[in-house]
Amino acid sequence: MTSTLWVLAVCFPLLAGVSAGFAPYADRTQTFSRTLVTREINPRFRRDAGVRSSSFTPSEVTLSAEELPKLEDNTHEITFLDDDGSSFILTWVGDGTGVILVLSTYNLPEGWYLGVSSSRLYRSEDSGKNFHDISHVINNTYIRKEFGIIVGPGNSGRVILTADGEGVKSGVIFTSRDSGKTFTRIDLPFYPFKPITYHLSNPDYLLVSSIDKCLWLSKDFGNTWIKVHDNIQTYTWGQGDTLFFSTSLKLTVDADRRGELLLMRTEDLGNTFTTVASKIFSFGYLGGFLFTSVVKNAGDPRVIYISTDQGDSFNQAQLPSATMEQFYSVLEADNEMIFMHVDEPGDTNFGTVYTSDAQGILFSKSLEHHLFTMLGKSDFTNITSLRGVYLTNVITEDGYIQSVISYDSGGEWISLNKPENEECDTSAQNCNLHIHGEYSVFNNKAPMTPLSDPSAVGIIIAHGSVGDSLTRPDVFVSDDGGYSWNKTLKGPHHYALLDSGGIIVAVEYYPEKPIKTMKFSTDEGQSWKSYNFTDLPIIFVGLASEPGTKTMNISIWGYRPEDEYKATWVSVTIDFEALLNRDCEEKDYVEWVAHSTTEQNKGNEGCVLGYKEKFRRLRKLSVCRNGRDYIIIREQSPCLCTKEDYMCDYGYYRHENSSECVKQADFKDQDLELCLNGEEEVLQTTGYRKVPGDKCEGGFTPKRTEKDIHKLCGQQSQSQERTAVTAVSICVLVLALSVGVFLIVRKYVCGGRMIAYRFSALQLQDDDLCIAGESEQSAVINEGGFHDDSDEDLIA
């Protein structure tokens, strides 16, 4: 997905104490919000087995005599000579503005007698070709490194810097409405505990929690603040002006109180409140779905409920039960469906992926042995360059990692095809491509996860290896959404997409080896040209480009060591516009039907999820620029429905290599009873339900109905306009009906058997990773990393 925020943050440690010793410049290359470690746990990466014996040589093309001076004339190197900051945070402000802010901070570590901290603020208006020290606009105030630079949504031009006030009861922010040209100092009546979050559509609305667990709201971009509520635990923006937060009636909301929390909602920015759920442990909001994990009775495992109407009503997710040692985790959610991971018992580091119906209630099994470690790392990736495509990794019985891909939103998962220009070693039992994901980045096996973007149709760039499981990474490129792949670069690299995929840039990854060369391709990775972007090598830190892929500029960041305690930060920006000096014309594009270009899909005419799409794409050999105004042109047409457009309904499953859905043994000769919107219904089905988002028409149309049997069930929210007297009356009514409701719930789905759909976690913090209260709209800036979107923090 695209985002209007791009943050690059790098920190390196100073002396930890005279007696502790010092490793100069250690961990400076830890970028992209990852803490790279060398510790290895099961699942494992193969080290020797399956190593390929290929004669592949990347196609390298020498820069012409005309191209070299054009690049040299448009390469701009900035050296921050007088800056001795121990960390740099680089942030783009908006998309297409060319504005970059850089925050440099210097801290002496704990253990030193003198507490010395300082900050410098730099600004560029030309995509990093020139920077100006603007520290004076914030009166040279020290800015809190852990909060970084908080940029508003879209091209709002809003920027917030957070500083310390006098004492722990007050804080200071600097706000800008003009992309950092000017700043206004504002003294806060509280001390911020978390970074300030913006409302998605109105950047004047700000939300933050204080160190004393109060929730504060501003309606005028921080000039004035009102206290929304005391004693809050987590919070998030919902749709419109809706705000959710969890709170406790007790004096504390620590871990011991979780499971006793209330989920509150305000739809008018704190004027009135509604309790939408009680006894909750945690909650989250993503893709229009409100998730809550509820403790029905003290000591019981947690149960997950889902709401699609902002908390007016909840339905219990129909998922397999989980013990206290297991957890659920939402991998992905949009307005059409949810991908849910259910952990396996024991310390297995894997589980099962289920996909939901459009209401987020009924789930079907999608993928077994899915990699999800106890450390909260999963390789599940949404390939945004082609609809319906998801990529992830599974664990074999012997504990090794293999990759699978789905082209129909989880309906079927298959192995990745072996690239034509690669061969497997004879010792490999199977020969497929395997892709490194988040778990590999965490374990320092690869520097980046797979990269795709909606503007670069069909293109995926990823680290991978060929064999029977993951080994040492090379760079592979797919131009058709993952059906076919080509090895394009040897060894690990950092990479970026420019000009809507018209240019791919890569820099070889060496943790501590200085570099001065970058590579770029104008034909989707089929050939590469090398360019020395500097005369004096730098220790590479990262690539910095505008959000999305429209830009023609790329900045390479790093540092040059001067001595054991000091380094000089360097930014080199390269503008490719002069090199691609011709605008693309109609002759430079070709029509392409998605999901139909390989032998694997021969005969389906590109019908996936009920319709086919025809795109206009750039020809590989066309050396021209798409430009910032480039718009994806697509044509959509529906297909006839087949069984492939349907998932197996609740209580049914598909035999391997079969499209037929058959009833599970546990449900034979029993009615399928469901709790929907507080009323029990009997599901009458022939075993099929359409895949969410599928747009097929006619053809195979199985019958499916839900018959209301007029029985209450589940958990209902309180009315939004309930008076105190009415609330008491309803509470009495609930108590009077509690026994009857319990008897109904006991026959919940399987008649007479109590099916528990538990939501629990390995540890308290693990549950936070699964369902946390961070907003999907907020930009979270972590020390030592960058985030282009906060969804990673919302749902793990």
Descriptive notes:
There is one protein chain. By secondary structure, the protein is mainly beta. Among the domains are: 586-641, Sortilin Vps10-D, 10CC-a domain (Complement Module, domain 1, Ribbon), CATH 2.10.70.80; 653-746, no CATH class. It has five helices and 52 strands. The strands form 14 sheets. It has a seven-stranded antiparallel β-sheet, with no helix packed on it. Strands 1-3-4-5-6 form a five-stranded antiparallel β-sheet, with no helix packed on it.
Secondary structure blueprint with pairings:
Elements: E1 7-11, H1 67-73, E2 75-80, E3 87-92, E4 100-107, E5 117-124, E6 132-133, E7 149-151, E8 159-164, E9 171-176, E10 184-188, E11 197-198, E12 206-209, E13 215-218, E14 226-229, E15 232-237, E16 243-247, E17 261-266, E18 274-286, E19 289-294, E20 303-307, E21 315-316, E22 328-333, E23 338-343, E24 350-356, E25 363-371, E26 381-382, E27 390-395, E28 401-406, E29 414-415, E30 432-435, H2 438-442, E31 460-467, E32 474-478, E33 486-489, E34 493-498, E35 503-508, E36 517-521, E37 529-532, E38 539-544, E39 553-561, E40 567-575, E41 589-593, E42 611-618, E43 634-638, E44 640-641, E45 646-648, E46 652-654, E47 661-663, E48 672-676, E49 679-685, E50 688-690, E51 697-699, E52 704-712, H3 724-746, H4 764-770, H5 791-794
Parallel strand pairs: 44-51
Antiparallel strand pairs: 1-3, 2-40, 3-4, 4-5, 5-6, 7-8, 8-9, 9-10, 11-12, 12-13, 13-14, 15-16, 16-17, 17-18, 18-19, 19-20, 20-21, 22-23, 23-24, 24-25, 26-27, 27-28, 28-29, 30-31, 31-32, 32-33, 34-35, 35-36, 36-37, 38-39, 39-40, 41-42, 42-43, 45-50, 46-47, 48-49, 49-52
